[in-house]
Amino acid sequence: MNLSRLDLNLVVALRALLEERNVTRAGQRVGLSQPAMSAALSRLRRHFDDDLLARVGGHYELTALGQVLLDRVSTAHDVLERLFASQADFDPARESREFKLIASDYAVSVFGTELARVVHEEAPGIRLRFAQTPNTVVDATETLLSATDGLLMPHGVISDFPATDLYEDRWVFLVADDHPGVDDRLTRQDLARLPWVTYQRTYDSPAVRQLGMLGIEPRVEVSVDSFQLMPLLVAGTRRIALIQARLARLLAPLAPVRAVAPPYEAVPLREALWWHPVHTHDAAHIWLRDTAARVGGRMTGITEP
């Protein structure tokens, strides 16, 4: 494919057409007249040798190729935006732009809130957008990082991409305040016999994989796609949950639960900001990484449960 022969404006038109599935609405979205958008659709159909949008009754539906292109054009559009937004110099006090960070609700609660506060004070024109970590993060890391500004993720999940360390955390177990079978500590036998609340995305917890190495198979009773919901699902039950100590302390007022230390030497959690190499020398991204590292460096140690 010779990119010099392509009109990159067609990327914008293609995304609008595939997402709107309507020529008129797609034109309104990108500021083109209906005839101009129809002409763009004709050029795209010739290029791909496919209708892309097929009329079914009184509306349009995506063809098989159109469905394939739907996800790809979104990624390509975001990559191009970041490419042409690159700057040699960046003044955070004067600039206006958005940074998109992929993160779990844990990372946003413990770290993202403080990062947002610092950005608010130092760079009032900068916007942060946090998006939930997708299930494809391990299998499609490069694609994910190429379309975003960074990923908040502990070490031990992905590798081979640049990263800056932010802070450390450790793992604790949550139990109900009035748990009938647990005093001030858990045993390995407790971990095997008691029901669990677990985080659905196990890739985000190398400590869970450590349990398998110890021969402990959690008896999962409830799984949830949010670390912050764990205390509510533990309170008033016999369940236990493995959770980050910083988050457990932050959520302590929300539910009658208590944190106890693991009955084994749990692997520590080292949170980092990961990015695609294309961002490495971008002035705006360097500022973002330096700011994130500074915020992480201020985070003090955590007390024992």
Quick take:
The protein contains 11 helices and 12 strands. The protein is an alpha/beta fold.
Walk me through this protein's architecture.
The structure is a single chain. This protein has 305 residues and is α/β, with parallel strands linked by helices. The chain has eleven helices and twelve strands. It has helices at residues 9-20, 23-30, 34-48, 64-84, 105-122, 141-146, 188-193, 206-213, 230-234, 245-251, 283-298, and strands spanning 53-56, 59-62, 97-103, 126-132, 150-154, 163-169, 171-176, 195-199, 219-224, 240-244, 257-260, 269-274. The strands form three sheets. It has a five-stranded mixed beta sheet. A five-stranded mixed beta sheet has the order 9-8-10-7-11. A two-stranded antiparallel ribbon has the order 1-2. The radius of gyration is 24 Å and the shape is elongated. The termini are far apart. The mean pLDDT is 88.
